[in-house]
Specification:
By secondary structure, this protein is of the alpha+beta class. The chain is built from 13 helices and 20 strands. The strands form four sheets. Strands 1, 2, 14, 15, 18 and 19 form a six-stranded mixed β-sheet that branches. Strands 4, 5, 6, 7, 8 and 9 form a six-stranded antiparallel β-sheet that branches.
């Protein structure tokens, strides 16, 4: 049983919440029971609020103002305008004032895509995105997705899609431009922290299957150690975890590593069922806080915790449900290894509007078993470990070949890539010395490329592909190595 290890390299980490490949929806409550609200209800409210004696005077006055604006535009605007356009604009306007990237309006088409993403597969680039400071921002790539293979990373900002600026668009509008049919190509202009200029990333969209759990066994000090990698929390994830955990236990594992790196979250009830496999009944696995500050703890029926040691792997892309799992295990006394997580501590509910559309609204905070709110701070690992520098290198943008005696950020980045691949450029400060020339020549010879000692677009592309493959194979995964080394200490 070999786990396909996905790790960071040109990757994105996690952040906003639930849609797989669309907008990150936030921690999502499954099977909402909130009553449907129809757009006709809203129209009636806008047009008839002022005459409703049951409303507070201030509310009635404000609704009358909205009704007046609606009627004014509908009857007098220079061009034709659809009722639905005005109503959806009003809804989006109200939601935008919340300044909450996890609350949004989804029309019927977007809601259909959203539901499809939870259940099976979808077509797109395979990345979670969020709106951060009014800029579309990568949260996490899905395992083995085009986005991961293209080198997108957490916190990458998407400025343009196919040359068109995303400025002024809401998250759903931006996602609609990024998504597309399998086989179609999209060019994203990316601004990355630490890189002075934006650069383009070309991605071929594909079908994104929603496989969520992978397992393997490693032998550490003669002891069988199971590894469970959870890539998101969808409808079937809890059942998959239970099945694969049972299989690992039947194999006689003596320890377990749970890997939720680059896992952006998902359904609340999914992570609840998984925690019920590990957190005993004498402590809550989660607390939920409503808008009035009332806190409700939730408990499992588990009599006692596992009789083997466990550690959890997290990184900047571990968000929401991943953080619920990580912080609960941490407060049980288990090690959490890696980098601080994303920091999303809210729960969203998709409220159907009666016509296929929904409002996804933040209803609750979630708290750790001890009552800690990790929002915007994340879960701190008990053992902090960074990956090798080459895991964080950038795609090299080549206009003119890079060569001897030149300097620049692209050269420093390329030198890190060479070093990661086992070719010693002698330095990584961005100066193209003779040793860098020799390293490039050796790489070109090994890859059957023209040996020039210069890096053109072809050499850069092959170099990036080789490094991505090396990372995807789990080589030099310091975080996993540390988790395995420390689990029996």
């Amino acid at each position: 049983m070999n786990i396909k290890k996905r790790h960071i390299f040109f990757i994105l980490l996690a952040a906003i919440v639930l849609g797989f490949g669309g907008a990150y929806a936030g921690m999502q409550i499954a099977s909402p029971e909130t009553p449907s609200i129809t757009e006709n209800d809203i129209v009636s409210a806008l047009q008839g609020a002022a005459g409703n004696d049951q409303q507070a005077p201030e509310t009635a006055e404000n609704m009358e103002k909205i009704s007046q604006a609606y009627t004014l535009i509908q009857q007098n605007y220079l061009e034709d305008v659809e009722d639905q356009q005005l109503i959806e604009g009003a809804i989006n306007g109200m939601l935008s004032t919340l300044e909450d990237p996890h609350s949004s309006y989804m029309d019927a088409e977007m809601m259909g895509q959203f539901n499809q993403q939870i259940e099976s597969s979808f077509e797109g680039i395979g990345a979670e995105v969020s709106m951060v400071n009014d800029i579309v921002t990568i949260v996490a790539p899905i395992k083995d997705s085009p986005a991961e293979k293209a080198g997108l990373r957490p916190n990458d900002q998407v400025l343009k899609v196919d040359g068109e600026s995303l400025e002024g668009l809401n998250l759903n509008e931006a996602v609609a431009k990024i998504r597309g049919e399998k086989g179609s190509e999209v060019v994203l202009q990316i601004q990355r922290s630490g890189v002075s200029e934006p650069f383009d990333v070309t991605i071929v969209r594909d079908e994104i299957p929603v496989e969520t759990v992978y397992n393997s066994i490693e032998t550490v000090d003669g002891k069988k150690t199971g590894i469970l990698e959870i890539t998101n929390f969808s409808e079937n994830t809890a059942a998959e975890v239970k099945e694969q955990l049972t299989m690992l236990e039947n194999e006689g594992i003596e320890g377990l590593v749970i890997d939720v790196r680059a896992n952006p979250g998902g359904l609340l009830n999914s992570v609840e069922k998984i925690l019920a496999l590990f957190v005993p009944e004498d402590m809550p696995y989660l607390q939920i806080e409503d808008q009035n500050g009332n806190k409700t703890p939730y408990y499992s029926d588990l009599k006692e915790k596992k009789d083997y040691p466990i550690s959890v792997l997290i990184d900047e892309g571990s968000a929401s449900a991943s953080e619920i799992l990580a912080v609960a295990m941490k407060e049980m006394g288990y090690d959490v290894v890696g980098q601080p997580s994303y920091g999303k501590g809210t729960v969203q509910q998709a409220v159907p509007m009666g016509d296929g559309s929904s409002i996804k609204l933040t209803f609750y905070k979630w708290l750790s078993p001890n009552g800690t709110w990790i929002n915007e701070t994340g879960v701190e690992p008990t053992i902090e470990v960074e990956q090798p520098d080459y895991y964080y290198t950038n795609p090299v943008q080549i206009e003119e070949p890079l060569g001897f005696d030149e300097t620049g950020q692209d050269i420093a980045n390329m030198q890190q890539m060479l070093k990661g691949l086992g070719y010693e450029p002698d330095r990584t400060d961005g100066y193209y010395a003779e040793e860098t020339v020799a390293a490039v020549e050796a790489f070109q010879a090994d890859q059957d490329l023209e040996v020039t000692g210069e890096v053109n677009q072809e050499t850069a592309g092959v170099m990036e592909a080789a490094l991505v493959e090396q990372i995807r194979n789990g080589e030099d995964d310091r975080q996993l190595e540390e988790a395995l080394n420390e689990i029996y200490q």
